[in-house]
Amino acid sequence: MDWRSVLRLAAILLAAGSLAGCSDAITVHPMARYLDASPEVPPLAGKWIVRNGDGDAALLEVDGRETDQGRCRVATIHYREGDEDTVLGNAVCFFELNGHLLAELTIGEPYEVYRQYLVKVSTERIEACGMSPVWVMLLALAEDRPVGYSLEALQYTERGQNEGKLLVFISQPKEMRQFLELALPELASACDSGGEEFDWFAFERMSPEEQREEETAAEEE
Fold it and tell me: Would you say 22 and 115 are in contact if contact means Cβ atoms under 8 Å apart?
């Protein structure tokens, strides 16, 4: 992808508001490799919800094959909160670095870019470290406390968007993977400790009854 294509796609993401006014991060190159071992991740098709007792609870919808357990899967992934509906990606690949699981979402046509999230996945739960891509979380952690890494070791640009910013990483995959092998343990530890910003946000699989109720409510709006 040339620089004009990168900037064009970044402009589209900015205009769309990316993640509803929050900070966002994309990489120009994919980090998942076809030689990576396939992690044991169950099928994810369906709807997942953060059960916080809020009528506008966050909803994650994975529109793909219900039996797909491959390392990479074709699926449109929506994130909904209140009236906001964001397409996070149209494909997802899972890979592990230093014992930590990452989900890499592909977004964009015809020019593709990528979002990576630090996750834990089971049959009934999808947990994400923070509600933002891993690079946003690493930057926030470095601003919050002393850490053993520096994002300045990587090449990226920064653009303002609404109340947040968009980070566009242009480093090569090998450099980014090496960086994450060093930095991920600190981020995972921060989310394990919990807090307002650094915590594991759990999406639980909606039952068929809940999905029907949600679909009926959406049709009535």
Answer: no
Buried b / exposed e over 182-204, threshold 16 CB at 10 Å, is ebbebbbebbeeeeeebbbebbe
Identify the pLDDT of residue 22: 72
Q: Model's pTM, two decimal places? A: 0.87
Q: Which two tokens stand for residue 219?
A: 């049709």
Q: 108 to each of 113, 116, 120, how far by Cα in Å?
A: 6, 15, 25
Q: What is the mean pLDDT of residues 102-119?
A: 88
CA distance 199 to 13: 26
* Structure confidence by residue, pLDDT tens digits, 55-94: 557 888 999 888 888 899 999 998 888 778 888 889 999 9
Distance CA 156, CA 7 (A): 12
Give me the count of residues in the chain. Answer: 221
Tokens matching residue 162: 């609404």
146, with CB counted inside 10 A (0-12, 13-18, 19+), is exposed
CA max distance for the chain: 51
Task: Give me 55's structure tokens.
Answer: 């009528």
Q: How far apart are CA 87 and CA 19, in angstroms?
A: 9
